[in-house]
Task: inverse folding
C-alpha cells in the first residue's frame, strides 16, 4: 500500500499556492499605492488649509511657499501655518514635480496680488474615482495669470489631483 503523495498531486498543490500568493501580493501592492496616494491628498489638503489661513490674514495668497520669502502683508510667513518638517516635505515634493503650487492673479496680465492659486499632487493610481472629481485646471488655457516669476503653472490633467481656489 502506497501512503505518499504522487508528484502530480504535489505539483497541483504548489501551483494553487503560487496562484493564491500572487493574488494576495497584488492586492497588497495596490493597497500600499492607495495609501501613498491618500497621504499625498491629505498633504495637499493641509497645504490648502494653510493657504486659506494665510489668505484670511493677508487678503492674498503667497507668491512663493518657501520659508525665506517675506509675506506680502507684513505679518507672518506661510511657514507659520505648517510645521517646518511639513513645509520642507512640501518644498521637496514641489522641487521634484510630485506636488505643484502656482499663485494666480485675477487677470491674464499676471501682476500681483495673488487672489487665486492652483495646487496639485501626482497620484500613482491613475484609475481612482477622485481624479474624475478634481478641477483639471490648466491656466495656459485659462484667464488667470501667474503672480510668481519663478513658479510656472501646470496642466492639472490626470494623473494629477488638483484644486483651484476660489
Result:
Amino acid at each position: 500500500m502506497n501512503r505518499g503523495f504522487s508528484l502530480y498531486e504535489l505539483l497541483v498543490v504548489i501551483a494553487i499556492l503560487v496562484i493564491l500568493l500572487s493574488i494576495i501580493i497584488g492586492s497588497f501592492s495596490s493597497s500600499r499605492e492607495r495609501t501613498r496616494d491618500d497621504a499625498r491628498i491629505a498633504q495637499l489638503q493641509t497645504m490648502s488649509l494653510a493657504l486659506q489661513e494665510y489668505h484670511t490674514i493677508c487678503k492674498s495668497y503667497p507668491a512663493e511657499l518657501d520659508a525665506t520669502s517675506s509675506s506680502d502683508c507684513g505679518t507672518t510667513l506661510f511657514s507659520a501655518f505648517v510645521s517646518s518638517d511639513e513645509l520642507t516635505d512640501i518644498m521637496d515634493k514641489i522641487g521634484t514635480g510630485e506636488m505643484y503650487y502656482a499663485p494666480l492673479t485675477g487677470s491674464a496680465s499676471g501682476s500681483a496680488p495673488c487672489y487665486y492659486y492652483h495646487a496639485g499632487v501626482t497620484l500613482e493610481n491613475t484609475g481612482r474615482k477622485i481624479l474624475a472629481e478634481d478641477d483639471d485646471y490648466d491656466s495656459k488655457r485659462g484667464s488667470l495669470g501667474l503672480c510668481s516669476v519663478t513658479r510656472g503653472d501646470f496642466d492639472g490633467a490626470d494623473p494629477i489631483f488638483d484644486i483651484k481656489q476660489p
User: Anything to note?
Assistant: The longest strand covers residues 116-122. Residues 7-165 form one domain. Helices lie at 7-58, 84-96.
